[in-house]
User: What shape does this take?
Amino acid sequence: MQRPNAAQYAYGSAVVVLATAALLLLTGATGPPGIVLSCLAGLLLGVLVAVTMPKGARSVKSPGTAAVPPPARAGNDAVRVPAAQVGAGADARTGP
Assistant: This one.
């Protein structure tokens, strides 16, 4: 199972809060059993909304899917030598 995205968290949380508040106001529950049932119903509705929400069309690049370099062209037999590294240390300073 994939991890939920930010929109699923946001919509699910909003549904939990709003559904629980609406159920408590509509039922007029004042005792612990009524409050617990209203909270559980709101939580179930929020989870249902978050799970059934469609996934986004964009895919997220993971660190393991690095770009593959193009294959070497035929006839490219030249040896490549890396350029010398120039540091900003004591060897690069000029003057006294």
Notes: DSSP finds two helices and no strands in the chain.
